[in-house]
Amino acid sequence: MLRVLPRRCDRDGDTRQGACKGGWGSGILRVLNLGNKDVELIDELGKEGGDIKRCIQCGACMSICPVAISGFEFPNKRLFKLIILEMGEEVLEHKSPWICVSCHRCVDVCPRDVDPHSIYFALRRLQSKYFRHPKVFEDLVRRIHAHGFCVESTDSERRRTLGLNELRMDEESLEEVREILTSGKLRDLGVVR
To answer: How far is CA 189 from CA 129, 132, 186, in A?
Structure first.
């Protein structure tokens, strides 16, 4: 069985999820072969994230999501549909789980007791396991490892002028953060050493 899904695309014809420009539904149409299901990957996601097959695509989660409301592209309905269709490769390429701010509003409003938050975080773990996480994730972890913060403050003088304390972690705390980061799977993934 084949299904045509809209896929955004840039001028160079690059159809990878993160490389394309424009809104969802613009660009080219892409044919998905629904016979190429990745049942094992989806089962693994279900063990950690819960029963997504209960999702009826009503959009309640999108209507309350602060990321979606603020205008960010956050197509979790499309992601959930891909999971339900057992489209493993497409699911692993999806970036929306990394945008979630963990407010749990989606969990509170779901009429079918689906837990989108747990699904996003299970998918983050799977994407990392298969080395499919976005590069920005690695950059953030490396900054935390180097400075203790995900955003490095390079303008100490301006902070003082504004009456703000310098963003600096003491060495003992920074070493503790580094130990936490290097003692887990992030080291195995090669993100930190």
So the answer is: 8, 11, 5
Cα-Cα-Cα-Cα dihedral sign, residues 107, 109, 110, 111: positive
Please state the pTM of the whole predicted model: 0.62
Domain that holds residue 157: 135-189
At 120-177, the pLDDT tens digits run 888 888 888 888 878 877 888 888 888 888 776 677 788 888 888 877 889 999 999 9
143 token code pair:
């900054």
**Does residue 154 share a domain with residue 124?**
no
Q: Which residues pair with 5 in a beta bridge?
A: 30
Domain co-membership, 70 together with 45: yes
Are 180 and 112 within one domain?
no
* pLDDT tens-digit map of 62-109: 889 888 888 776 667 888 888 888 888 888 888 888 888 888 999 999
Helices (H), 54-94: 60-64, 66-69, 76-84, 88-93
